[in-house]
Amino acid sequence: MDVVLRFGGVDKSDDDPDPWVTKVHKGTVRRVLTYFRPHIGKVALFVLVAALEALIVVATPLLLKELIDEGIVKNDVGVVVLMACITAGLAFVAAALALVSGYISGKIGEGITYDLRVQALEHVRRLPIAFFTRTQTGILVGRLHSELIMAQQHFTGLLMAATGVVMVVVVLAELIYLSWLVALITLVLIPIFLVPWIRVGRVIQKRSVAQMDANTGLGGLLQERFNVQGAMLSKLFGRPAEEMAEFKERSGKIREIGVSLSVWGRTAFVMMALMASLATALVYGIGGGLVLAGAFQLGTLVAIATLLSRLFGPITQLSGMQELAQTVVVSFSRVFELLDLKPLIRERPDAVDLEKNKAPDIEFENVRFRYPTADEVSLASLEHLRTERERGEVSPDVLRDVSFHVRAGTLTALVGPSGAGKSTITHLVSRLYDPNSGTVRVGGHDLRDLTFESLRDTVGVVSQDAYLFHDTIRENLLYARPTATEEELVEACKGAQIWDLIESLPLGLDTVSGDRGYRMSGGEKQRLAIARLLLKAPSIVVLDEATAHLDSESEAAVQRALKTALRDRTSMVIAHRLSTIREADQILVIDGGGVRESGTHDSLLAAGGLYAELYRTQFANPDRDAPKPELEEAEVEEPEPAIQYMGFGG
Ligand SMILES: Nc1ncnc2c1ncn2[C@@H]1O[C@H](COP(=O)(O)OP(=O)(O)OP(=O)(O)O)[C@@H](O)[C@H]1O
């Protein structure tokens, strides 16, 4: 049976959609244990060291007993000195063993967490883009990073607590050996002390989870509001008073929980000290009476008192062990549920490589496609806002029976209204998604028969808003081809019409770009992305032309860059510029998820269909939003229509 647990091990709940709730499947504990296998040697060593530590702990009271009964009482200085020296020596050995066991438990805990983290990162890296479009970045990062750190801490805590088991058993055995009566009284009294202690522990754990929740919530909010786009939106639309009130409210909550945690933490400490003092008083009270009655010797009494003081630490550790273990299982489960998410797009074991350096053709045959449901690609716990209703909801087909052929080495322009399915078609070419039925072929191969690597090498994509890592321009370019030489970098930048700009920067290629670096304009960013594409030199280019209005100079520069980028390659361009549309060997007019018309600019105009209609609508309104004619387009006789920004999507 599956159990629903909250991260942190408290507050079981069946219907709470909150992301800290996780299903712990049957067999999880066994699965967690499999992670111990590679560390079994270290685990054995850890148990051995723990046993040695326990033996030293119980040996000390016996030495004290000898020291008192045989040394002090019998007036034998030799025994006193010898026992004191052995006790001091054992203290050193115990300290060394404690350090060794801390080191080994750290190695085991960190080792297992490392294995799990690497496995999870490798798995998430292979998940399809649909997963990333659905999940909330902050929560995913939290799951892969901070939660794992916490899991590791709990895990190491659990290993340390496990040594407590050995200690309690050995100490109790010695207590029985020394005085069965005192041992019996201790066993009866321990639960009385322990009950309030466990209650306080629960409160602390509950508050810790609440603190984690509150911190994650504030962290997510800050991440959303303080990234460049968020900060911009908030500056333009934000209501500073309300926003500040929300920050204050969340920070206030963290403060309140923090204060209460500190009070409860202190309470636990005080309770522990009180418990130890009361137990000592009790032992000396009862034991003193027994010594006076001649039931046992003074040394035995001191040994029992010393032993008891060693018992409380391990016992309190053990009392929290069950919840600690539960938390560990839950935190592992949270990674397991990620690992169990099967990637929708997988490489076949018998996948073949696509022939390199030869521009292949592209063919869509009766392609039907709908975007996957939430349950198919993601986890509810990674989507803060996903409602239960949405989980299995199937979205309608976005592409219906799409068939077309892009001949090798030619340019196909995709045009059509916004939401028609143009981007979706390009997503299928780079296999970001697989069609639900029908086939997408490249170079005569079904995409599903090709290796990921050869497809990645073959298809190059330039999106509208090119993404740059926060790194130097050089590193951003080398991402496409790490082995590129300086000359090749410069050549690519020149081809992409961005070299003049880079050269004018004081640090040139070493200028840091990206979110927190040199801010490039939309056109500059796209040209840099084109330079990246030129370095990659793919034989298929998929391009989404920028819809942002560029000034005539950038417009012309982008156009020239595109000419270089598309030369001798098979290209599919979501076209927003008339010049691209005109140059296309084929125009596909996409509407309502299907290819409504296809042909060249002239033939489609002559046919007088949707393309002609859209063209004329815009042509009749040339001033509207139209960019200035490009340098290369200046010689075109008919006036430039604004078609690129209106009827043709984006
Ligand atoms: N990840 C997604 N999940 C679900 N539906 C999606 C997703 N992405 C796009 N859609 C839907 O698929 C349809 C086609 O979108 P697509 O982005 O392909 O249109 P488009 O023609 O490129 O539009 P535009 O020109 O505005 O970019 C739209 O209705 C859109 O809402």
Automatic annotation (TrEMBL):
Gene3D superfamilies: ABC transporter type 1, transmembrane domain (1.20.1560.10), P-loop containing nucleotide triphosphate hydrolases (3.40.50.300). The keyword Transmembrane helix applies. Keywords: ATP-binding, Membrane, Nucleotide-binding, Transmembrane, Transmembrane helix. Residues 622-650 are annotated as: Disordered. It comes from the Bacteria. Residues 44-327 form the ABC transmembrane type-1 domain. GO terms for molecular function: ATP binding. The chain crosses the membrane at residues 43-64, 79-100, 155-173, 179-198, 290-312. SUPFAM superfamilies: ABC transporter transmembrane region, P-loop containing nucleoside triphosphate hydrolases. PANTHER family: ATP-BINDING CASSETTE SUB-FAMILY B, ATP-BINDING CASSETTE SUB-FAMILY B MEMBER 6. This is ABC transporter ATP-binding protein. The lineage of its organism: Bacteria, Bacillati, Actinomycetota, Actinomycetes, Pseudonocardiales.
